[in-house]
């Protein structure tokens, strides 16, 4: 293949893309075009590949006939899956490896030239900064094959949220869809960061079968649809989404133009992300609970909020103790008990160390109705649901919660009740069957209204939620039907929706009138009803109902709090590495003592199962039990030996009557990633570099000296071997990745050598000195861990040594000697020696003794539950050390510092510095916390694989 082929193809493509640009500007001005829209026939594509490969073999990359290279790279991006773009490129393009970094830079330059010449798409989002070269061919691949299933499912799940406006606004459609991409693979999440591209592709896929899309070339669109349709589920998802989109377009054309929604003119009504309050009768009285809806929809307004909700702990107004675990508020349907009634004006949810933007969004879009009173309708199951409209009906029972105590002179049908939640008062209302004027006035004085002559309720399609009085919820895309009833004769009904009135004749002789409301957008809408009779000047009766249209709920394979089985993961979508390395906490909830099957499957990038293990366990499985169970599973040969080849893991929990729940964990798509392998020469590691290839540096630290590192050389894709093992860290301008390389164990001498105690240089006793040790622990903690028991054991030894160094540095020489004995082969200190080392002063001895008495009870609790016990003990016995009040937050700091110091790096700099300085000033506090950690470690299950047994923090 000579130069003639490149010249022909370049000219052919230049003419095509110029024409496409002109056509695109006529139909969708400013919309970018993609290299995949080349319009080449199959024979021409074969010619293009041959011409490009011939040019590569010639040793010179052309400057004037570059368009075939752009199309070739985009085709490569469309076909590949996984995270090794350049390895695939090199395998398909002989001699390409000889160009090294220059070849990668050439690809990026030509794509930029394509963008300038033809208005081509430009990568955007954080991922484009991290993958500064391969983001170009992947973007111009439009929708790579391994991402098509995710988009088809996303469109299917969001179909009821489609509106005519969204279908004609790809940018906004892309933003809405990107806010729901959190359940997909990291590759798709990266793709979705370019919201304009996502919206453009989605809008094109949703166009009718007989329509020509203004956003993609017809041949390219048909190709994507054909590939996507090869899988049954994807074909069905796309078909149903297209049917819904077609219905929406038809309905949109039939709607009255400019119909006011009142969204900008009305005062904010309760949003669809507002939590729900409820009451539950307990032996102590009525206790308040808060239930969170699906907060993931907030990502449609602020894409970063989901990441913060998943990464940060949440402080809930009225809930005492430690903040909720990371990601917990992302699971809708859970009921959380309130210790105190929430204060007006205080955000219901605030993210610990969250961004100002995220917390402002939560404060405005996740709110409770202001007081001073709240009304709840009593149900038969001894619970009470909130009535947001504060309406009561004759003959029903309610609970009224008031910030202030009501006057003592109350009618007999209002009695004070016991409220177990502090900060408010509760009153039982047994509303009389017949309300006289005095009863109506009494209700009005308490802030409650009565409905006597009109009824307004949902009918037809069952509402997703109905409080029994004035608020009902539906999912977007549903058309609510409202039933209006009256005890008096009426002739007409005036129905006002968001300020727009409609006059409807009342059906003669019928007690009810049914009104269907369609085309309601996501949000809260107010429907008011006025019944009119020709014999009266004023309306016979008036009533209202709030119609809350929620965004279509995301389908959760892990289950919900309303279902029989639920998998709770922290973070909510852990990667395969996080799961394997124990950096993800998993819980399984369901009926207590129920026996379930737990199945773990590992699969390759095309979904083929590589290995699987099944076991039976009883519910519930908390974080501590999960650590023990998974540590057993990952050492099973059928799982362990295929881990390095696996691209995903599927956890399935099944019960014949309760159904099933699944959690999928996939390898993270990252700029730098280490791959591990083993051959006849022993273990090796390989660096997968998806950066621009320049400036990547590698450092190596041994297990024996974990705080000292030296630069090493390793070519991308080649196998590197370090017989002694250790930590390898690759760093580029856009990312960092570390791996624990296991030692090569041949015989007993090698086995004995790996038990050598790691040695660290003496640090400085200061906030900065301790922080440097914590950062060192974080480097070893976050490193990926191959499926090798020797590597895991050596990393545990390093982390124990770093924690011991921190404890000795702060705790003093005597405590440091204790830590040294625990690490080495010396005689292990007894419990009494540990207790005495906490301190010799009377309060120190009493503190150690009290904590020792609590050890067995504390060992049975989760680490977060141990915080309150330590805080109480410190307040009781350590007043001389400055603990004059109970401080659970500081107690948590001490326990984390003594067991998992790397976890403290998520704390704000100011809070960390203040707590660390306080610890340095009173070292006995850390000695006490370290005593608790070591005592629980000594009696807990040692097979958990944790650095310190029994200390799996959420």
Would you give an account of this structure?
The chain is of the alpha+beta class and 954 residues long. Among the domains are: 3-139, no CATH class; 145-254, no CATH class; 276-365, no CATH class; 453-555, Immunoglobulin-like, CATH 2.60.40; 566-666. The protein is 37% helix and 20% strand. It is built from 30 helices and 34 strands. An 8-stranded antiparallel sheet has the order 4-2-1-7-6-9-11-10, with no helix packed on it. Strands 14-15-21-20-17-18 form a 6-stranded mixed sheet, with no helix packed on it. A hairpin with a 4-residue loop joins β14 (465-466) and β15. α1 crosses α2. The chain starts with a helix and ends in a 15-residue tail after the last helix. 42% of the residues are buried. Mean pLDDT is 86; it is low at 253-270.
Overview features:
954 residues, alpha+beta, eight-stranded antiparallel sheet, 30 helices, 34 strands, 37% helix
Could you provide a short overview of the structure?
With 954 residues, the protein is α+β, with helices and mostly antiparallel strands. The chain is 37% helix and 20% strand.
């Amino acid at each position: 293949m000579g130069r003639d082929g490149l010249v022909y193809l370049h000219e052919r493509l230049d003419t095509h893309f110029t024409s496409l640009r002109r056509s695109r500007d006529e139909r969708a001005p400013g919309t970018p075009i993609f290299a995949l829209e080349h319009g080449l026939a199959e024979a021409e594509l074969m010619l293009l590949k041959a011409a490009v490969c011939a040019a590569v073999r010639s040793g010179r990359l052309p400057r004037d006939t570059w368009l075939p290279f752009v199309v070739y790279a985009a085709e490569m991006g469309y076909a590949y899956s996984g995270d090794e773009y350049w390895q695939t490129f090199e395998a398909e393009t002989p001699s390409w490896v000889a160009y090294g970094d220059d070849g990668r830079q050439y690809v990026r330059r030509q794509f930029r030239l394509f963008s300038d010449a033809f208005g081509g798409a430009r990568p955007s989002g954080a991922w484009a900064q991290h993958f500064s070269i391969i983001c170009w061919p992947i973007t111009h691949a439009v929708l790579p094959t391994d991402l098509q299933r995710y988009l088809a499912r996303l469109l299917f799940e969001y179909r009821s949220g489609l509106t005519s406006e969204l279908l004609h606004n790809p940018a906004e459609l892309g933003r809405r869809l990107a806010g729901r991409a959190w359940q997909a693979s990291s590759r798709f999440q990266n793709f979705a960061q370019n919201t304009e591209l996502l919206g453009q592709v989605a809008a094109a896929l949703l166009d009718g079968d007989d329509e020509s899309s203004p956003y993609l070339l017809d041949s390219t669109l048909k190709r994507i649809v054909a590939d996507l349709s090869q899988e049954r589920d994807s074909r069905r998802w796309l078909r149903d989404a297209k049917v819904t989109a077609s219905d929406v377009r038809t309905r949109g054309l039939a709607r009255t133009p400019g119909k006011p929604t009142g969204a900008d003119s009305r005062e904010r009504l309760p949003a669809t992300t507002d939590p729900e309050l409820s009451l539950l009768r307990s032996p102590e009285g009525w206790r308040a609970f808060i239930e969170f809806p699906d907060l993931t929809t907030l990502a449609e307004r602020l894409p970063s909020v989901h990441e913060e909700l998943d990464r940060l702990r949440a402080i809930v107004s009225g809930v005492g103790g430690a903040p909720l675990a990371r990601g917990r508020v992302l699971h809708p349907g859970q009921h959380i008990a309130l210790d105190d009634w929430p204060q007006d004006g205080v955000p219901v949810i605030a993210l610990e160390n969250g961004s100002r933007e995220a917390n402002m969004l939560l404060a405005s879009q996740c709110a409770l109705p202001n007081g001073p009173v709240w009304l709840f309708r009593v149900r038969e199951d001894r619970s009470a649901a909130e009535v947001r409209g504060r309406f009561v009906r004759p003959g029903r029972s309610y609970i009224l919660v008031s910030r202030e105590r009501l006057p003592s002179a109350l009618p007999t049908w209002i009695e004070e009740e016991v409220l177990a939640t502090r900060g408010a008062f509760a009153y039982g209302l047994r509303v009389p069957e017949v309300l006289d004027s005095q009863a109506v006035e009494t209700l009005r004085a308490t802030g409650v209204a009565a409905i006597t002559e009109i009824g307004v309720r949902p009918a037809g399609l069952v509402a997703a939620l109905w409080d029994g009085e004035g608020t009902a919820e539906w999912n977007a895309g549903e058309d609510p039907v409202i039933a209006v009833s009256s005890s008096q004769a009426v002739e007409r009904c005036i129905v006002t929706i968001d300020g727009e009135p409609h006059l409807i004749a009342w059906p003669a002789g019928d007690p009810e009138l049914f009104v269907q409301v369609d085309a309601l957008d996501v949000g809260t809408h107010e429907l008011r009803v006025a019944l009119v009779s020709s014999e009266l000047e004023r309306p016979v009766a008036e009533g209202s109902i709030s119609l809350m249209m929620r965004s279509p709920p995301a389908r959760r394979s892990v289950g919900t709090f309303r279902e029989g089985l639920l998998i709770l993961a922290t973070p909510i979508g852990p990667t395969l590495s996080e799961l394997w390395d124990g950096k993800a906490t998993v819980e399984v909830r369901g009926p207590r003592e129920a026996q379930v099957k737990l199945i773990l499957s590992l699969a390759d990038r095309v979904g083929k199962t590589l290995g699987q293990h099944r076991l039976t366990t009883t519910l519930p499985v908390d974080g501590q039990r999960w650590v023990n169970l998974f540590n057993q599973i990952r050492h099973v040969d059928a799982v362990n030996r295929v881990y390095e080849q696996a691209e995903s893991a599927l956890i399935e929990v099944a019960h014949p009557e309760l159904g099933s729940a699944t959690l999928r964990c996939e390898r993270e798509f990252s700029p730098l990633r280490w791959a591990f392998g083993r051959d006849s020469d022993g273990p090796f590691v390989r660096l997968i570099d998806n950066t621009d290839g320049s400036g990547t540096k590698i450092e190596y630290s041994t297990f024996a000296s974990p705080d000292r590192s030296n630069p090493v050389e390793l070519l991308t894709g080649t196998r590197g071997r370090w017989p002694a093992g250790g930590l390898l860290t690759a760093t580029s301008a856009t990312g960092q990745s570390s791996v624990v390389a296991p030692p090569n164990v041949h015989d007993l001498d090698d086995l004995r050598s790996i038990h050598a105690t790691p040695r660290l240089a003496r640090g400085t006793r200061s906030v900065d000195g301790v922080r440097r040790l914590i950062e060192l622990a974080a480097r070893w903690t976050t490193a990926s861990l191959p499926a090798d028991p020797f590597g895991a054991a050596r990393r545990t030894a390093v982390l124990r040594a770093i924690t011991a160094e921190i404890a000795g540095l702060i705790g003093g020489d005597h405590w440091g000697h204790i830590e040294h004995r625990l690490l080495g082969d010396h005689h292990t200190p007894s419990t009494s020696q540990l207790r005495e080392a906490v301190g010799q002063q009377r309060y120190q001895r009493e503190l150690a003794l009290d904590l020792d008495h609590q050890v067995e009870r504390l060992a049975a609790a989760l680490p977060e539950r141990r915080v309150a016990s330590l805080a109480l003990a410190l307040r009781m016995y350590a007043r001389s050390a400055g603990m004059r009040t109970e401080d659970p937050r500081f107690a948590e700091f001490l326990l984390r510092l003594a067991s998992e110091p790397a976890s403290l790096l998520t704390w704000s700099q100011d809070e960390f510095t203040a707590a660390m300085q306080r610890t340095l000033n009173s070292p006995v506090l850390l000695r006490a916390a370290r005593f608790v950690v070591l005592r629980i470690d000594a009696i807990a299950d040692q097979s958990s694989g944790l650095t310190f047994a029994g200390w799996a923090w959420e």
